Amino acid sequence: MNTTFAEWLTTDRPASRAQARLVRLTLSFRTLLANRLALLGLAIVLALLVLALAGHWFVGSPTDQVLANRLLPPSAEHWFGTDELGRDILARIVHGSQITVRIVLMVSLIVGPFGLMVGMVAGYFGGAVDAILMRITDIFLSLPRLVLALAFVAALGTGINNAIIAIAVTSWPPYARLARAETLSIRNSDFVRMAQLQGASTLRILFNHIAPLCLASVVVRLTFDMSGTILTAAGLGFLGLGAQPPQPEWGLMVAAGRQYVLDQWWVATMPGIAIFIASLGFNLLGDGLRDVFDARSS
Amino acid sequence: MHSPAKRLYAIAKLSAGSAISVALTLLGLIFVTFAVGRLIPIDPVVAAIGEKAPQEAYDKMYRELGLDRPVYEQFSNYVGKVVHGDFGNSVFTGRPVLEDLASVFPATLELATIGILIGILVGVPLGVVAAANNGRWPDHVVRVLSLSGYSVPVFWLGIVLLLIFYGKLDWVAGPGRIDIAYDGLVDEWSGILAIDALRAGDMDVFRNALSHMILPATLLGLFSLAYISRMTRSFMLTQLNQEYITLARAKGTSERAVIWRHALKNARVQIITVCFLSYGFLLEGAVLTETVFSWPGLGLYMTNALFNADLNAVIGGTILIGAVFILLNALADVVYRFADPRTA
């Protein structure tokens, strides 16, 4: 029984539940690693996280104004140049990554569990509950997201937190759909029946038996949608409806640089590139994850 | 199922079903905008009569606005108004919101229509080529292109395009819909400047309008292109894995005919559906694009309204875009069901 750790991680005869999970994770991860674009996406996402967590130790303040240094082009001292108030654009982009990560995480933490709940309840109970919940979901699904987010922000007021709420309110329906489909496919399976016979409560069945199986597809979809969240949040910021000055939010920075774009191109261009790269990272990773977890598409 | 009477019955049943579902969704949209109107922290009574009005005037206006009625009654009144096209007056322009919407919507429609044409004419062939070369370099190029299209912030790309093609190269006209020098030279007929100019036979105006339109329309086109090419690729791959394709190849049909005549023909219904959906997204994308290009359409109207706290105008615009969006969704569904004999 001398097996190496690598063999233990890839065996087709796992001895325990924990090992089985690890094996599946390892194999999925290997498939992901084979996809070069997905790997690039993973690298970008990790870099964004590191930037948000540790980046602020390496750059100056995002709000320090040195008016003598207004609108300086990129140089050794200011890698990305300075903006209209003499603030270092690189420092602002690094600090802005915190805002981006915060928005993405908050939206995912609201939208994922909520959609999961709605979908599981609809799929598990069926009948009238299903009909009503899915009708509401369909209505929200066929409303225009950005425009609705605009209307919500108009009512709630500007600011990052309201932008998060507005995005969350408009983006939960796909998760409900997904979770419902998954629940429908497993609610009559033997292990659910057995749990019912053992007298497990409905809540226990939903959370311990059904939710774990819905999680993979929900997480994949969340990763994919994070890029959309980044773009919507930046769009709201650009319109002046999300983050407010002097916050170093990337969309807001593009808006501020817009009036100087013909002569000082870097002010608007640099934060835009940051948005693009962050969003692309999540898209590439999500695309790769879908190939790994969704056998149907490959 | 094959007798004409039965097929007609099936179609009638389907139409009735989609009509009910559209009506419900529209009602949902109106309810959401109603809720948005309730959320706003501004007292509508104070907004109407001012802060210094005496208590009696306040109470009178409170009743006149129907705020003393139960919420469900307020909602049904609201639905009645919306259905009759009464969105109230715009605080900013002082005109009825419906009139404002009617005057700005053609500009948005113009932009979105050119955009979707670009998206279809470029996106579908790209998707087909990607599917035909599944896993080889053309497929990767299209994949990276469409993922980039999904990832790039539209407002930023608009600014960069303006910087390059207007600021540096001076190939196209800048923001706006027409140079001031040409403004109002042709009679308004369709509301779409390029068409009106052609109708009047004024080529200068036509060229100028086109020059203003080309950047924002291309920008919108890029976004629908990303979506359309990706979906086309996936539909084509499904078709190319079918047995009839193997049969066609076995019979010696050329690869070009297999792809463009057999597979594409069978994927066309799904592709058309996607184009309809994509058109709806474009109307939405127009909000940001119009802001960047100062394009006097619905998007710019709504953003201006947002900054002037002109809630009637914001809600009117939301309902208009939402309704068009919902109708396009339903239309896509209907086209899909009718065009595919297996589902009707």
Plain-language structure description:
Chain B: InterPro entries: BPD_transp_1_N, MetI-like, MetI-like_sf. Chain B: Its main location: membrane. The complex is a heterodimer of chains A (298) and B (344). Chain A is an all-alpha fold. Chain A has a single domain (36-297), classed as MetI-like fold (Orthogonal Bundle). Chain A has 12 helices and no strands. The longest helix of chain A has 38 residues, at 202-239. The mean pLDDT of chain A is 87. With 344 residues, chain B is mostly helical. Helices cover 76% and strands 0% of the residues of chain B. Chain B has helices at residues 4-39, 44-49, 55-64, 71-83, 97-132, 137-151, 154-168, 193-200, 203-240, 243-250, 255-293, 298-307, 311-339. In chain B, helix 5 (97-132) packs across helix 9 and helix 7 (154-168) crosses helix 9 (203-240). Chain B is globular and about 90 Å long. Chain B is built from 13 helices and no strands. The longest helix of chain B has 39 residues, at 255-293. Chains A and B meet through helix 5, helix 6, helix 10, helix 11 and helix 12 of A and helix 1, helix 6, helix 7, helix 11 and helix 12 of B.
